[in-house]
Amino acid sequence: MSITTFLWTAFLSLLPISELRGAIPFAVIRGVGVLPATLISVLFNALVPIIVYVFLATLHRLLYSWSAYKSFFDRTVERAQRKVHENIEKYGYWGLMIFVAIPLPLTGAWTGALGAWILGMDKKRATLAIIGGVAIAGIVVGTLVAILGAGAKSIFFKTM
To answer: Which burial class, exposed, middle or buried, applies to 114 when counting CB atoms under 10 A from its CB (0-12, 13-18, 19+)?
Structure first.
């Protein structure tokens, strides 16, 4: 595998729009085996919750001193917590892991980490749940790519 393919695979696995759905098929199209493509993609996608928590904690701390941001953030979080409180109580970290494991748009490590952060879930437990979900999603996407070949990209991307 060339360094360019490695870097693009890592980059795609870190992007919220593509994550594993884009990184694994990309690497396979570029000639990487399914297993190495899956392992590299999962490894880098598993870094997402750490990046999200560090970035949001820093940015949030800076912005929270603005009254407009504080008011908007507090209202948004309160509304989100009211809406999902019952589901969080019922499914908790297992629910977070399953949500992240579904390799569809608007699910994945980025959305899971953002949701867990907004809902105030324990960082360590949420990170472990997200990493578990990423591993499951990697198995799902890797298996589909192994069965369908590089053409599996049509499952994950809109083609014209």
So the answer is: middle
* C-alpha to C-alpha distance for 151 and 55, rounded to whole angstroms: 35
Q: What are the pLDDT digits (tens) for 23-43? A: 999 999 999 999 999 999 999
> Each residue of 4-27: pLDDT tens digit?
999 999 999 999 889 999 999 999
The confidence score (pLDDT) of residue 126 equals 95
Backbone angles phi, psi at 16, to 5 degrees: -60, -30
| Residues in contact with 146: Cβ distance below 8 Å, sequence separation at least 6, in sequence order | 34
- What's the start-to-end Cα distance of the chain, in Å? 29
Q: How far apart are CA 45 and CA 7, in angstroms?
A: 13
What is the longest distance spanned by two Cα atoms in the chain? 53
Evaluated on CA atoms 53, 54, 58, 63, the torsion sign reads negative
Q: How many CB atoms lie within 10 A of CB 146?
A: 16
